[in-house]
Amino acid sequence: MPHLKDLYSQYKDDGLVLIGVHSKKGGSQAHAFAEAKGIDYPICVDSSGSTVGAYGVNSYPDYYVIDRNGVLRYADLANSHVDAVVAKLLAEPAPGSTPLSRLRAMVARQPDYAFRVQPKGDAAGMDLDGGLRQTFGEDAQGPWLEIESVTVDRKKVLPTRRTLVRVRADEGLTLMRHRLFLDGKLSADLVLENGKLKGRAEGQTVLRNVPGGLSHELALHCHARLFARGDSPKRDLAVLLGNGRISGEGSHVARLKDDSERPGVSRIAWNRGERQASLVLDFDPKGTLLGMQKLSTSKGEAPLGITILQGESAETQLKALFPERR
Amino acid sequence: MKFLPSISLASLLLVAPAVSQDFPREQDLSHLEGLQAPALAVTGWFNTAPLNLGELKGKVVLIDFWGTW
After folding, report:
1. Alpha helices (H) in chain A, listed in sequence order
2. pLDDT, tens digit (0-9, with 9 covering 90-100), for A123-136
3. How far apart are the C-alpha atoms of A255 and A269, rounded to whole Å?
4. Which parts of chain A register pLDDT below 50?
5. How much is the pTM?
């Protein structure tokens, strides 16, 4: 019974309807039992016994699976195969669906990882504005999704950035979407297919994959954030590591690159242009931070403020830092 | 001796379609499978408004026949 609750919560948004049909015998206790066990899926009672007869039920529990066309595909399925069959039938296209409608549905189901980078009170900061536009379309090669995100710096410290990501979908595509907010405004919006970044805005975002790719649990395990204190323009760098398998997303000036002299080491070098302040972070292929170097700081420069969160508690720490993060 | 392998191959080909069920069932109800699922003649809905299989097209429906006695 707990297993069915898990199955239901896992798949209900993908189109699973779970119905618990209680036997005629003991039917009056079904509601009380469901309530006591915290069952949240639909329950009913076969009060005449005719449904059990029509389905050929011969023991309890017995499982039957109906496909998206209303066809009974699995009658009295072996209990241990229920999960696999549900996943298989959910993967079949719904009647009347098109590749485009499936792409829309797929995108709508993606978790929305939104990271909000808050300005520090003592930083002059950039005045950023942004926007996002999603467009769906279809051509001879199939459906596509285009995401355009625009970041405008009203103080002209940085050029206006325009990111255009076009995603094509095939059956079985796994999409993930990452949104980065700066000063409450959307700054970067990345779409990943099976762990690989689809498209990339020149000079804005870099993402590197290691074998195995990203999983759905890309949730932050490490978030490095740096900013200049004082009156200098603020920059933010986000490094996202998931489950030991990274990928990094550097916003704006940061890039994650392989270190040509040290195989397996990836480096993010953060430069602040004219001011010549640099910070370098090195990571091993598992995304562990190997080292940090501060190469130079121009005269009179306030020290960089650095927050590195890493490990299992990173998510908790991040929530404390960014309470408004959704 | 030489022809034995071809015989066993032929018998496999003949048998295969009949046992091509991809997931095991606990009893043979193949006469019900591949057809529109029988309507649910039930009462006492809980956690939901009354459901009708005909209105659930587009969904995958898992029916759990259960008892508490």
Report:
1. 2-11, 30-37, 50-55, 82-90, 99-109, 314-321
2. 223 333 344 455 67
3. 7
4. 110-132, 149, 151-155, 157-159, 170-189, 191-256, 270-278, 286-287, 296-326
5. 0.50
CA angle A49, B59, A137 (to 5 degrees): 170
Q: Does B9 touch chain A (CB under 8 A)?
A: no
A38 in a domain, yes or no? yes
* Cα gap A186→A134, rounded to integer Å: 13
Interface touch A75/B59, C-beta < 8 Å: no
Closest chain B residue to the Cα of A58, Cα to Cα: B27
Q: Please give the structure tokens belonging to residue A109.
A: 């189901």
Domain containing A17 equals: 2-90
Amino acid B3 reads F
Tell me, yes or no, whether A39 and A86 share the same domain.
yes
Whether residues A63 and A209 share a domain: the answer is no
Let me know if residue A96 belongs to a domain: no
Give the count of Cβ contacts less than 8 A between chain A and B: 199
A33–chain B Cβ distance below 8 A for any pair: yes
Q: Final residue of a domain: which of A25, A57, A90?
A: A90
